[in-house]
Design goal:
- Pathway: Purine metabolism; AMP biosynthesis via salvage pathway; AMP from adenine: step 1/1.
- Its EC number is 2.4.2.7.
- Residues 31-150 form the Phosphoribosyltransferase domain.
- Keywords: Cytoplasm, Glycosyltransferase, Purine salvage, Transferase.
- The protein is 31% helix and 34% strand.
- It is of the alpha/beta class.
- The chain has a single domain (49-173), classed as Rossmann fold.
- The strands form two sheets. A seven-stranded mixed beta sheet has the order 5-6-4-3-7-8-9, sandwiched between helices.
- Strand 7 (115-123), helix 5 and strand 8 (142-151) form a beta-alpha-beta unit.
- Helix 3 (33-45) crosses helix 4 (60-72).
- The protein is globular.
- The two termini are 26 Å apart.
């Protein structure tokens, strides 16, 4: 399936989570076996070389990262919200529209020198991906790029990631919020 065909599988929900927002819901794409497989194939084709790990951020990022890691023959690194991982973790705070949140990963989840590709369903402001990249880099690993099913370029996430030396690629792009 082409990206234009995949676009038809993404549901738009107006006024969610607040009035004026057009929420891009990837769950309808994930429900479509052929579409989901094609989306992962397109993302995998955009990756040069094989990373050691694909890092997925909670929660829909787990789905994208798992499928992409399998396709690329890489391991899977789970980056979770605070309080979800047992054992020793490192954490990074990041800004939200109204406050802050925190991401964590196990201290031994990625070895120094490992190559890590970030993966998530949606790129908006880039805050989650930047926090994940800081965690990976604190562990001594190298972030080789980031892949997303959807980019909302008006929110500036790709620009922020590129400024942090993280090359991004998104399958689909939607104007607005």
């Amino acid at each position: 399936m082409t990206p234009d065909q995949l676009r038809t599988l993404v549901r738009t929900i107006p006024d969610h989570p607040k009035p004026g927002i057009l929420f891009r819901d990837v769950t309808t794409l994930l429900l479509h076996a052929e579409g989901f497989a094609a989306a992962i194939d397109h993302l995998a084709d955009s990756v040069s070389g094989r990373p050691d790990l694909v890092a997925g951020m909670e929660a829909r990022g787990f789905v994208v990262a798992t499928a992409l890691a399998l396709k690329l023959g890489a391991g899977l690194l789970l980056i979770r919200k605070d309080g979800k991982l047992p054992g020793a973790t490192i954490a990074e705070d990041y800004a939200l529209e109204y406050g802050t949140d925190r991401l964590t990963m196990h201290v031994d989840a990625c070895a120094p020198g490992a190559t890590v590709l970030l993966a998530d369903d949606l790129l908006a402001t880039g805050g989650t991906a930047l926090a994940a990249a800081r965690l990976v880099r604190r562990a001594g690993a190298q972030v080789t790029g980031a892949r997303f099913l959807i980019d909302l370029p008006d929110l500036g996430g790709a620009t922020r990631l590129e400024a942090a030396d993280i090359h991004t690629h998104s399958l689909l792009s939607y104007a607005g919020h």
